[in-house]
Request: fold
Amino acid sequence: MARRGVNAPVKPMSDAFAGAPLANAAAWDAYVAAHPDATPFHTRAWCEAITKATGHHGHLVTARDAHGALTGLVPLHHVRSPLFGQALVGSGFAVDGGLLADDAAVADTLATGAADLARALGVPSVELRGGPLPAGEGWRCEGDVYAGFTRDLAADDEAELLAVPRKQRAEVRKALAGDLSVTAGRDAAERRDHYRIYATSVRNLGTPVFPKALFDAVLDAFGEDADILTVRADGRPVASVLSLYWRGTVMPYWGGGTAAARGLRANELMYFALMGHARARGCTRFDFGRSKLGTGPFAYKKNWGFEPRPLTYARWLAPGEAPRDTNPNSAKYRLQVDLWKKLPLWAANRIGPMIARGLG
Reply:
């Protein structure tokens, strides 16, 4: 997708962001704002929030034309973990992003720059999630792990119900008839309740929870373009989701429920209520996020009437290096996952963030 395309890209450059102001911050903001393929994970708001919350240093690789104007960029976080190893991840804790460029030639330039940066830093791999796929030396594509789920929102609640397949629609109707309430906001109480629910949910799945500072940093960075929706039973929070709003699309990003949520059908109410909440905000699309093929979340999203779209990611590896394994479904971590499910919540919440920050 060429927008200027009159000048060949020059050698890529990189600029670190770790809390200090960037010389090209305004140009970064403007380029992302103008690019039709940009995602929230390309934004300076996201990238600086990740660095602030996790300490992972960021590097912005850019390409410019002969006049010095930006023609492409890719933000990378240097994720380091004693357990999972290290990588340059574009961008950290994101499910999309990757190379953002005026055209294929610029994208190749950025990919070369990312690999060169990894070599200079002694990092064995670069991981890109979304965007154009590089085909240079050392790069390989992986398209058999994740699928994304996105569709248009309906005109109103009744039309939204009819858009849901019959079996799942019946579950939503039962949830709507139940004695549940919904709140939405960004204040300290919503943040506290969301983190408690999310931490419980991921502990029950056998995975470590992200640090609370990560959620706070993203909410603070995105302002009114992020919020929390929580379902409550008798005033007690049982399901909650933190969502991003981007160019008319709502993206439920970090969500979960307690053990009681399933019987109460709180998750069904949560996502249906979020559709209405997003519609009231002017959104027209619902991005249900990504799920691993063959998993329960993958089947759950299909039950809502969302068609899976295969996601292809790209990875660069230095010669002789093996890719990081951060998949909790991997046989390598089966014992650890089973043990983690048995941890008291207080212990999981204390230890988990130190592990999860290395996932990136």
The longest strand covers residues 139-152. The chain has a mean pLDDT of 90. DSSP finds twelve helices and 13 strands in the chain.
